[in-house]
Amino acid sequence: MGILDDLYQGAIVEHSRRPRNFGPLPDASVEVEGENPSCGDELTLYLLVDDGTISRASFVGDGCAISRASASLMTEAITGLDLAAARDLAARFTEMIRGAPPAESLGESRVLSGVARLPARGKCATLAWQTLEVALAEAAATRAGS
Predict the structure, then answer these.
(1) Do the Cβ atoms of 135 and 32 come closer than 8 Å?
(2) Residue-range domain boundaries for the chain
(3) Can you tell me whether residue 77 is helix, strand or coil?
């Protein structure tokens, strides 16, 4: 294992043990549940959307280290983005997990790029991001109905 792999593994462990934005968001605009039935990972994602921009994001749930780290990294990455940019970021993350080179726009979430070499763990890494896609669709529908 190289130095870069050690750094990436350290970041994943850190986000898993001390997830950022962990906890319910009482004033959330959108609340969506996600589940990976193959391993039991589950989470609830909360977004506070103001004028089409994600002003806050948080999550709660139980899951493996990769699942928790991914959700933690995702909430940091999407805060401050508009809905379209967050949707694009989710697509780029999924592409990376499927083996595409990690895009710079993914920021620290690129530490999960090694999951592409572990196909069985792909669902763990993408659970939060797939839940985000559902939440973004709900937020857009709510916004369109306003």
Answers:
(1) yes
(2) 3-145
(3) helix
Query: Is residue 136 within 8 Å of 87, Cβ to Cβ?
Result: yes
Query: What span, in angstroms and rounded, lies between the C-alpha atoms of 3 and 79?
Result: 29
Higher pLDDT pick, 3 / 9: 9
Q: Which two tokens stand for residue 132?
A: 């985000």
Backbone angles phi, psi at 57, to 5 degrees: -145, 140
For residue 110, pLDDT beyond 70: yes
Q: Which CATH number fits domain 3-145: 3.50.4.10, 3.40.50.1580, 3.90.1010.10, 3.40.190.10?
A: 3.90.1010.10
23-80 confidence digits (pLDDT tens)? 999 999 999 999 998 888 999 999 999 999 999 999 999 999 999 999 999 999 999 9
Angle between helices 65-78 and 3-17 (to 10 degrees): 90
Claim: this prediction has a pTM higher than 0.70: yes
Of the chain, the end-to-end C-alpha distance in Å amounts to 52
> Cα(26)–Cα(46) distance, rounded to whole angstroms?
9
Distances (CA, A) of 1 to 52, 96, 106, 114: 42, 20, 23, 12
